[in-house]
Specification:
- This protein starts with a helix and ends with a helix.
- By secondary structure, it is α+β, with helices and mostly antiparallel strands.
- It has 17 helices and ten strands.
């Protein structure tokens, strides 16, 4: 057991992870205060679980009392080209780089479970493993483990991998030597703050998730606020803008992990507009996009279609005006309002008001200009 830390590190890297670090299961007072302030200001939006699990977030021992060392694994998913360029393709559905192949939750969890089994069989040591679905401050511990630092966009930045690292966590009931904490190296750069389309990055290291396109297109289930719809552009799942402009990305190398290499070219909005629920589930069978459900995905595609201003998409959007979901009908009305002429909007408004009973959809109709 003398070189136990080295043995563990070697095993983890052999399972396909690119980096691993070690730290104590403790959260400092400044981080606790900042996180509570984030919650008190309601910056977490509808993500009620963040508030519900606050005590566990700030104290890993409330998740597992036996934990003595936290391991953080980093896995490179760097894309082959800068995702920021897709913003210019108005009729293309812009999907975040991390979601263009297999679901990282499943891929990384499988590798972690192999480690867990190995550790238990070889050393009779139990462990807990997590991939982004438990009340753990992943980015905080990643910084403590020397994985990188939390940039001004609140995401992790690595000198070697830029902004493109998946994080996963292992809890161990043994005390191991800790890694050196990473030092913040953003300097005076504020590129990530300037690029945010909706102003969600309200200042350095502070985010209002309610304005974040990733939150809106993935976590949020309602209709998008009027103030951000045009700013969403062609994004239909997530947003990479603040990650894409980070200067440290120039040192990152394209991921070699087959499950995370982008497998196909970006699809047009017209393609996604023709999906039904069954085809959505089949098409995104191995993708994290499946998690948000068909209604949210279709809402995202319709809003992006409105932002495209493309007349070619009108007939596809019009097909959704009779959708049983008020969210979809409302999004379709707004999207058509961005494309149709004044006279066409007037006719549509009159026809739909004669039969619409949902208050939200009527609100969208009333706002047609």
């Amino acid at each position: 057991m003398k070189n136990f830390k080295g043995i563990i590190e070697k095993k983890i890297l052999s399972l396909g992870f690119d980096k691993v670090g070690f730290c104590r299961p403790e959260v400092d007072h400044v981080t606790k205060r900042n996180y509570l302030n984030f919650l008190n200001k309601k910056y977490h939006g509808d993500m009620d679980w963040l508030e519900k699990h606050y005590e566990k977030k700030i104290d890993p021992k409330k998740i597992w009392p036996e934990v003595k060392t936290i391991l953080v694994q980093g896995t490179n998913y760097s894309p082959s080209s800068n995702p920021i360029m897709i913003n210019k393709k108005k009729t293309v559905g812009n999907i975040s780089a991390y979601a263009k192949n297999e679901d990282y939750h499943k891929v990384l969890k499988n590798s972690l479970l192999m480690f867990k089994t190995w550790l238990l069989r070889k050393y009779s040591i139990d462990s807990l493993v997590f991939v982004d679905t438990s009340p753990i401050l992943e980015k905080y511990f990643a910084e403590k483990c020397g994985m990188g630092w939390q940039g001004k966009h609140t995401n992790l930045v690595s000198k070697k991998y830029g902004s493109w690292l998946f994080l996963s966590i292992i809890f161990l009931p043994v005390e191991l030597e800790v890694s050196s904490q990473a030092k913040a190296s953003c300097g005076s750069c504020t590129d990530c703050l300037k690029i945010c389309p909706t102003g969600a990055l309200i200042s350095e290291n502070k985010i209002d998730a309610r304005k974040c396109i990733s939150y809106l297109t993935i976590e949020y289930k309602g209709s998008f606020p009027m103030s951000v719809r045009n700013k969403i552009g062609n994004k239909i799942y997530g947003c990479d803008d603040c990650l894409s402009v980070c200067p440290w990305n120039k040192f990152s190398e394209k991921t070699q992990k087959q499950e995370f290499i982008q497998t196909s070219s970006d699809s047009k909005l017209s393609f996604f507009l023709q999906f039904d629920k069954e085809f959505f589930l089949k098409f995104f069978e191995k993708s994290p996009i499946r998690r948000i459900g068909f209604e949210s995905f279709l809402r995202n595609v319709i809003v992006a279609s409105g932002n495209s201003k493309s007349l070619k998409l009108v007939r596809y959007i019009q097909m959704q005006l009779n959708n049983p979901s008020p969210i979809i009908r409302g999004a379709s009305i707004w999207a058509l309002g961005q494309i149709l002429s004044k006279n066409e909007k007037k006719k549509m408004k009159k026809a739909l008001l004669s039969k619409e009973t949902n208050e939200y959809v009527i609100f969208e109709l009333d706002n047609l200009r």
